Amino acid sequence: MLDAPKASLSLRSDDALKLCEYGRIEYWDARYMTLPNSYDWYMNYKQPGQKTTALRNLILKFCAKDGLTLILGSGNSSLPGDMYLDGYSNIRNVDFSRVVIDQMKRKYCKMKSLEWTQADVCDMPFEDCSFDCAIDKGTIDALFCSDDASLECRIKSYCQEVDRVLKSGGVWIVLSYGPPEARLEFLENDGYSQHQDMLSFVCEVISIPKSQVLLDGHSGMTSIYPYEETNYYAYICTKDPGKALEKEAMQNEAFKKKEGNAALVIKQQRQKERLDRDGHLAKKASCVE
């Protein structure tokens, strides 16, 4: 698949317009008000009659059930509730639509450890190094679906934010239509390797045949593309401890130049106290059921 803004040039005008709207909050607010029922992009975590699914296997492998999980662009997906019922005890959900956040708070009010936050994934209100695992199921693709001149800047800001809130060694699972040549330059960002804007991720790419997902009860947006993709792509982005330390050192040096050494010492002490308290990485599952 081409990046959505480029792909839209090949679509009928109404489909191109729909693609561009996926990056706009007004589109999503209106959609959630008129279509409040659960909808899952690309693939489901649970499917009646199936013991497991491709998505569930990925999450079981890379996300610890007792860790703190962040679902990015959660929408009205059934994923948070399905994971909760499967034993995931601490899940934070973030979406920029106040409409859907309020809907999901009401829907899942009895699942007390599911928390819902209205925020832009490019600027999240969470502490550094808070989460063991983050899950993106189409959110990065929605960000690509825009003709806004600031698109590339927003994609980079999003990746930086996920890097910031993940613990060292944590994993960001990105499920996308975009092939490696259209996504890895943003997820790994190797061109910034000597700059504080580098990313700490080392990414593994898993190709998931669409035929397999169809057996799981696929839902998605294939109809708006002028050709048929045969695969989805799962990017398993691990926050590499060595790269994270290198990035932190560069950021601390920049902070010291701006704020002074005394301010840096205070900042580092506060970070250490918080990380000693709750910064240890949860142990991942050793096998897939």
Overview of the molecule:
With 289 residues, the protein is of the alpha/beta class. It is 42% helix and 17% strand. It is built from twelve helices and seven strands. It has a seven-stranded mixed beta sheet, with helices on both faces. Helix 11 (241-259) runs antiparallel to helix 12. The longest helix is centred in the last third of the chain and has 19 residues, at 241-259. It is globular and about 55 Å long. 36% of the residues are buried. Residues 1-17 and 217-227 have low confidence and may be disordered.
Which keywords apply here?
single chain; 289 residues; alpha/beta; 7 strands
Rg over CA atoms: 19 Å
Mean pLDDT level: 83
List the secondary-structure elements in sequence, H or E: HHHHEHEHEEHHEHEHEHH
Give the number of DSSP strands.
Answer: 7
Arrangement of strands in the largest sheet: 3-2-1-4-5-7-6
Unreliable sequence segments: 1-17, 217-227
Number of helices: 12
Structural class: alpha/beta
- The share of residues in extended strands comes to 15-25%
Described by the principal axes of the CA atoms, the overall outline is: globular
Question: In summary, what is this structure?
Answer:
By secondary structure, the protein is of the alpha/beta class.
